[in-house]
Specification:
Layout (H helix, E strand, L loop, with lengths): L3 E7 L14 E9 L6 H12 L8 H11 L6 E4 L9 E7 L7 H14 L3 H11 L13 E8 L8 H17 L8 E10 L2 H11 L2 H6 L5 E4 L2 E3 L4 H6 L3 E6 L14 E10 L3 H12 L6
Parallel strand pairs: 5-6
Antiparallel strand pairs: 1-2, 2-3, 3-4, 4-5, 6-8, 6-10, 7-8, 9-10
Helix pairs in contact: 1-2, 3-4, 5-9
Length: 294
């Protein structure tokens, strides 16, 4: 049974003339728990998309297995459009970096994030301290990092994101009450970005000024500065509440020049204290919820 249902008019065009092709597509999105029986291959594909050129060295298949096995705690959601047995087109979950430290995929991700943040000494120092193996000290709260993983198909509307985050917040509270390892002090978000040259930005600006673009509605891709755009619009709100943010290039990305084809894609990592997570969930809901959502 689905957690909830949401309808969307994807690409709605209220100004199309008789000569123009219709651009409105009605889609029902159903929210489900992660399902180890059917979700593995789609989750793995989405993880490969999330980690881009560096995915091969990050054991995405093992990570997909970890995500699905950890979902026994009831934490995490998928979005599907054709019933529970269909492939998810989006997922959101959080994993304990401490509880799963010995998992090869989590170990590889920890080392990868520490390697990438070495370009920002303050971020690297903070993250190294947070992710260091713990020594139990009586009556002392230990740092506990939750790794937030969220990815979706390119054409998924951002309005599907707020319900997933609201459910994640509730699921984390329930898991903590049940004694599961979700009592985090910090959340580490991994996302992805693309970079545009000034010439490419000019082309995008021209497209956004076109009648068809205005009527279809903006994709909401967020600009982080210096021609850097996020694939996930909600990253703009995550960054506002982050203590550290770093955009990085993929280690295995091929060299680019004037003849390169396709987007210049990279990664982004953001660290948010846990006491700001509730505010983040509320803000994502206020900024991105569909007009008729409750």
């Amino acid at each position: 049974m689905s957690k909830r249902k949401q309808s969307s008019d994807a690409g709605k065009d209220n100004e199309s003339s008789d000569e123009e092709a219709p651009t409105s597509v009605d889609v029902d999105f159903d929210f489900f728990n992660l399902n180890a029986e059917v979700d593995y291959h789609a989750i793995n594909r989405l993880l490969i998309q999330l980690f881009g050129a560096d995915a091969e060295g990050l054991h995405t298949g093992t990570l997909a297995d970890l995500i699905l096995s950890a979902a026994d705690s009831g934490v995490g959601s998928t979005i599907k459009t054709d019933g529970e047995e269909s492939d998810p087109c989006a997922f959101l979950t959080v994993l304990s970096c401490d509880a799963h430290r010995e998992n090869p995929a989590m170990g590889a991700l920890i080392q990868y994030m520490l390697s990438k943040t070495s370009a920002d000494l303050a971020f690297h120092s903070t993250l190294s301290s947070l992710l260091a193996p713990k020594t139990q000290v009586q009556n002392q709260v230990q740092p506990h990092v939750g790794l937030v993983l969220c990815e979706r198909l390119i054409n998924m509307p951002v309005q599907t994101v707020p319900p997933m985050y609201r459910m994640l917040g509730d699921e984390i509270q329930d898991a903590v009450a049940d004694g599961d390892p979700y009592n985090f002090t910090h959340y580490l978000f991994i996302s992805r970005v693309y970079r545009l040259t000034p010439e490419e930005e000019a082309m995008v600006a021209a497209q956004r000024n076109s009648k068809r673009y205005k009527s279809a509605g903006s994709s909401g891709l967020g600009r982080g500065g210096d021609g850097v755009y996020g694939f996930h619009p909600e990253d703009e709100e995550v960054m506002k509440l982050s203590t550290h943010v770093l955009t990085y290039s993929y280690t295995k990305a091929p060299p680019r020049d004037a003849e390169s084809i396709g987007l210049d894609v990279g990664g982004r990592v953001m660290l948010v204290p846990a006491d700001r997570f509730g505010s983040l969930v509320r803000t994502i809901g206020e900024v991105f919820s569909a007009p008729d959502s409750s």
